Amino acid sequence: MRFVALLSVVFALSAQDTSISAQRIAEHTKFLASDLLEGRGVGQRGGQIATEYIATQLALAGAKPAGDNGTYYQRVPLVGVETAEGATLSAAVWSKGVDLKWADEFVGVSPLERPDVRFEGEAVFVGHGITAPEFKWDDFKGVDVTNKVVVLFTNEPPSTDPKFFDGRALTYYGRWTYKYEEALRRGARAAIIIHTTPTASYGWDVVRNSWGRETPFVKLAPNEKALSFQGWITKEAGDKLLGLANHTVDELLAAADKPDFKPINLGIQIRAHIPSKIRELETRNVAAIIPGSDPKLKDEAIIYSAHWDHLGVGTPVNGDAIYNGAIDNATGCGILLELARVWGSLPQKPKRSALFLAVTAEEGGLRGSEYYGTHPLIPPAKTAIALNFDALYPWGKAKDVVLTGAERTTALPMAQQIATRLGLTISPDAAPEAGHYFRSDHFSFAHAGIPAFSIEHATEFAGKPAGWGKQMYDEYNAKHYHQPSDEFQSDWDFTALQQAAEFGFLLGMDVANQAKLVDWRPGDQFHR
Ligand SMILES: [Zn+2]
Fold first, then answer.
1. What distance in angstroms lies between residue 510's CA and the mean position of ligand 1's atoms?
2. How large is the average pLDDT for residues 39-57?
3. How far is the centre of ligand 1, averaged over its atoms, from the C-alpha of 485 (Å)?
4. Is the pLDDT of residue 493 over 80?
5. Nearest to 365 by CA among 441, 433, 417
6. 480 CA distance to ligand 1 centroid (A)?
7. What is the Å distance from ligand 1's center to 456 Cα?
8. Residue 195 CB neighbour total at 10 angstroms
9. 210: pLDDT confidence band, cut at 50, 70 and 90?
10. How close is the Cα of 363 to the center of ligand 1, in Å?
11. How far is the CA of 482 from the centre of ligand 1 (A)?
12. Distance, CA 135 to ligand 1 centroid (Å)?
């Protein structure tokens, strides 16, 4: 009798241990979002403590160190660059010229990571700055822009045809990050985007706010090339600048949308002086691995990721200077840790290994995951999938899950089966034209060739009317997103996070056990 009773206790315990707990996710979230963690700023004490906590929890889960030199940490060297007072940008032809005013007319940063940068160069207008062979589109048409200052628009040629720039959805070619990368690949000295609200999909104030502060860059390797300047000018400043060459913004935007567009040598000389405040930032990704059970396949892995950083201590709002980042992204870290715990407690491990990765500096532009992408701990060709968690909403029981980008991969049918099993529907990206796929850490993995997407927050909740989730989301976005008030609330209901974790767990298990690696859909931009 005693033996039976003991056995049932053991079974009860193990049943509990291998099921994902909303409560545990909530407890991690509460700790990571507490004021003691000081907003988990990169290069700040609270951020260091957060990484210690995450590494400790991963160790307790039985995951092995997967970072540098047998540790749980992958060092990520960053350089913070903030354009200092006195930055100038001017344009001239013959005797005429315009001087643009910092913040009101131009913003930007010098990725050279040097305190004092001066440059000049001829301005060439390159349309949208896109070379996309799969859409038979080339804005450069073989024109050499080495040492030139390219002037361009963000976004891509408008389309409703799914075969041309994915129709209404934004492709990576439309993102401003791509523009600067392509300009650098082509040897340009600097790249200046002319802002318009329709092409950017947000107003000048958003550009000014996000570019008027410190930007972290991955530290350049010796002799690594970088643009002297990457920035934006207002539409009005664009008209002043283009006016020197008798062009207007509207006219050139119309020209840029045509397939026969060719670069226009504007005959304008651009000159700039960009002083910067430079600071080295010591930060790290946390990496831990639970080895697979198959002697061959354990060399391959799936990745679970979440960014641990938030905005740290900053400008006070209503007397509160701690940007706790409870939803963004203590929630994702809570899920990551709970997944590791359950994976670690499986009596029989899946065939492939599972890498648990808490990345740094997402808020500064996906820098921790970018660094991982260029310094992978498991080769991308041996990485079956990367599943990311970023900002999930503890507002009750979910009816759906959003998987932006799953349709780019061969994992979609499997994801659909699992969703059905869990009684969840897969909801489409509500705003594909906003390019959310390129704004979270999974994108860095995709950029490195790893099939990747995020398991995102629910949009519909059980027992709530249709549209309630959207209303809550809009309210969160308006009042708490990136504000000190993104704080843990004791009345939050973490059921939706448990569901997202269960979904990720089952999908990860299936991918870790299936015969083949997940692949990109044929022809996808990130196909490896
Ligand atoms: Zn954020």
1. 30
2. 96
3. 13
4. yes
5. 441
6. 11
7. 14
8. 26
9. confident
10. 5
11. 6
12. 32
Q: How far is 268 from 271, CA to CA, in rounded Å?
A: 10
| Ligand 1 centroid to residue 310 C-alpha, Å | 6
pLDDT level of residue 8 (50, 70, 90 thresholds): low
Residue 453 pairs with which residues in a beta bridge? 387
Q: How far is ligand 1, taken at its centre, from the CA of residue 439, in Å?
A: 10
Considering all CA atoms of the chain, what is the largest pairwise distance in Å, rounded to the nearest integer?
100
Tell me the pLDDT band of 226, cut-offs 50, 70 and 90: very high
Scanning the structure block, which residue is given the tokens 């340009």? Answer: 188
Q: How many angstroms separate the alpha carbon of residue 391 from the centre of ligand 1?
A: 8
The model carries a pTM of 0.90
pLDDT tens digits for 393-451? Answer: 999 999 999 998 898 999 999 999 999 999 999 988 877 887 888 889 999 999 999 99
Residue 213 to residue 3: CA distance in whole angstroms: 65
Residue 52 predicted with pLDDT over 70 = yes
Radius of gyration of the chain (CA): 24
Q: How far is the CA of 126 from the centre of ligand 1 (A)?
A: 32
Going from the Cα of 307 to the center of ligand 1, the distance in angstroms, rounded, reads 9
The Cα–Cα gap between 212 and 315 comes to: 14
> Ligand 1 centre from 134 Cα, in Å?
32
Q: How far, in Å, from the CA of 173 to the mean position of ligand 1?
A: 23
Strands 320-323 and 312-317: antiparallel
Ligand 1 centroid distance, CA of 325 (Å): 8
| Rounded distance from Cα 376 to ligand 1 centre (Å) | 23
pLDDT for 14 beyond 70: no
Is the distance from CB of 510 to CB of 418 less than 8 angstroms? yes
> What is the predicted pLDDT for the residue at 201?
85
Cis omega (within 30 of 0) for bond into 329: yes
Q: What is the pLDDT of residue 528?
A: 60
Instruction: Tell me the CA–centroid distance for residue 328 and ligand 1, in Å.
Output: 5
Q: What is the pLDDT of residue 515?
A: 92
| 107 C-alpha to ligand 1 centroid (Å) | 21
Q: Is the CA virtual torsion 149, 152, 154, 155 positive or negative?
A: negative
Strand-pair partners of 269: 92, 122
Would residue 374 be called left, alpha or beta, if left means φ above 0 and alpha means ψ between -120 and 50 degrees?
Answer: alpha
d(CA 407, ligand 1 centre) in Å: 24
- Which helix H or strand E contains 132, and what residues bound it? strand 131-132
Quickly state the pLDDT bin for 1 (edges 50, 70, 90). Answer: very low
User: CA-to-CA distance for 227 and 149, rounded, in angstroms?
Assistant: 10
3-state secondary structure of 80: strand
